Write a sequence for this structure.
């Protein structure tokens, strides 16, 4: 038995046995059926009338058969007319509808039924983008490192000059750009982030997609803010607002508005961190950030749990900064790692209600949604809250836990922060070094503890140095303090070792002051 190879379809001339011929045969059958429906009743009546008397049979059948004829025939004729109108609509308006993206062009014979390569890449990029914040972070990172060049090439708008893109292709490119946005922010590759979104903005403009233009403006605002160019970030946010105001509301309008408020809040927070010499101006910026976060939170879609987690964490960060500004007097700076004189204050004070409510909810949501990055950040800030309560061991345990979670996810920035927390904590409470070494709350020796702090701070410095646009000024200061202790040149205003009884009395006094302050 021999088999022949499958024959490729002839693209030069139409196939005479194809769908066109079958549709014409079907149309003829409809005409024949319609005419026959009119004729059959009368033929039957005449035939029966010739066999049996008209009075006996014809009179009984003529009425019902005529009713069937006049009901069924118009129905068949209507079906045929609708089919002809649909085919004419498709032939005349089909190319124009495909060009503007309202309908998809028919797939040629033999095309992969699973979709275009762009669609498959968009689906993979979405899955791996989610994996960056979950258990598969290492595998997702390997995938993005391998596929990032090809994904970025797809988003080069110059490749589509003169070639109209259907709506589905634009959607797929937007999905790919969203996954690259997650990757570039994680790696701090901000120049690539700006280039990709600038290209997507031009594609969205040609495709008449103002919603995508607004989204690209918001992403570019994030990139400029992370680069420290707050002026350019504000300009992008103003562009996003202008686009939102001149187009009608669309299904993603609320989500984009929530993100715009969130980005404004982060710009206010960045401004507050720069106002080291004007505490009142910094406090005003922080209040503006808190209001913007609350406004954005109110506009978040219910399904955006990740956005809610991020908002809760950032509200806690703003609360820490505000509390820090309220306790800048020398006595308030005499405890913990913040007692070290440093160029920019680190927020180790807390507003009890905000941190307990917001961080607790953020941690619960992150656990439920398997948002491991959000969970690590919430645990890190809860360690800060524990330190403020003079619960030094609990704080160190939470920072160690958060560091391990960041390490599993490959988030160098989070690891660097936790190492800085732990290293600076050892400089104030040497027992932290014993906890990290042997899981025992004991002092391993002054020199050994300081050496451990120096090692942690050096690792933090190395991780920060690998990330572009990340400030290392604070960790450099802690390193100078630790090096001074190791070499016997401790600064006069550095943290001093106190006996346990004195520290406990200080904790009780601090708690009494906080209780009296919060007493109604």
């Amino acid at each position: 038995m021999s088999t022949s190879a499958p024959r490729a379809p002839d693209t030069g001339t139409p196939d005479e046995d194809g769908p066109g011929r079958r549709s014409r045969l079907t149309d003829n059958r409809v005409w024949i059926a319609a005419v026959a429906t009119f004729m059959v009743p009368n033929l039957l009546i005449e035939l029966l009338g010739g066999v049996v008397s008209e009075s006996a049979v014809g009179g009984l059948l003529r009425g019902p058969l005529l009713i069937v004829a006049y009901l069924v025939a118009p129905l068949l004729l209507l079906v045929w007319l609708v089919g002809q109108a649909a085919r004419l609509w498709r032939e005349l308006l089909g190319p124009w509808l495909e060009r503007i993206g309202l309908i998809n062009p028919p797939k040629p014979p033999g095309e992969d039924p699973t979709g275009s390569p762009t669609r498959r890449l968009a689906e993979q990029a979405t899955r791996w983008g989610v994996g960056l914040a979950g258990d598969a972070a290492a595998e997702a990172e390997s995938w993005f490192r391998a596929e990032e060049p090809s994904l970025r090439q797809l988003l080069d708008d110059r490749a589509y000059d003169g070639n109209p893109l259907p709506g589905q292709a634009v959607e797929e490119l937007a999905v790919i750009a969203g996954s690259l946005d997650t990757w570039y922010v994680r790696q701090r590759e901000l120049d690539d982030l700006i280039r990709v979104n600038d290209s997507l903005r031009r594609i969205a403009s040609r495709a008449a997609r103002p919603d995508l233009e607004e989204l690209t403006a918001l992403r570019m605002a994030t990139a400029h803010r992370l680069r420290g160019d707050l002026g350019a970030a504000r300009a992008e946010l103003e562009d996003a607002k202008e686009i939102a105001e001149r187009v009608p509301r669309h299904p993603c309008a609320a989500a984009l508005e929530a993100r715009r408020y969130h980005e404004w809040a982060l710009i206010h927070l960045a401004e507050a961190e720069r106002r080291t010499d004007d505490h009142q101006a910094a406090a005003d910026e922080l209040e503006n950030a808190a209001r913007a976060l609350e406004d954005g939170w109110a506009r978040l879609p219910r399904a955006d749990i990740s956005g809610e987690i991020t908002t809760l964490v950032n509200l806690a960060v703003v609360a820490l900064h505000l509390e820090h500004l309220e306790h800048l007097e020398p006595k308030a700076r005499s405890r913990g790692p913040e007692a070290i004189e440093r160029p920019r204050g680190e927020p180790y004070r807390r507003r009890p209600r905000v941190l307990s409510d917001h961080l607790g909810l953020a941690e619960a949501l992150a656990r439920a949604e398997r948002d491991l990055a959000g969970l690590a950040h919430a645990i890190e800030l809860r360690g800060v809250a524990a330190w403020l309560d003079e619960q030094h061991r609990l704080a160190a345990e939470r920072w160690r836990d958060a560091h391990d979670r960041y390490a599993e996810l490959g988030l160098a920035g989070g690891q660097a922060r936790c190492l800085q927390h732990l290293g600076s904590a050892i400089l104030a409470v040497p027992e932290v070094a014993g906890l990290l070494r042997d899981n025992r709350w004991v002092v391993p020796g002054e020199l050994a503890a300081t050496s451990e702090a120096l090692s942690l701070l050096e690792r933090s410095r190395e991780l920060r140095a690998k990330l572009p646009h990340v400030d290392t000024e604070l960790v450099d200061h802690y390193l100078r303090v630790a090096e001074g202790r190791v070499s016997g040149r401790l600064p006069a205003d550095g943290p001093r070792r106190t006996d346990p009884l004195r520290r406990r009395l200080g904790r009780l006094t601090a708690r009494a002051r906080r209780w009296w302050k919060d007493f109604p």
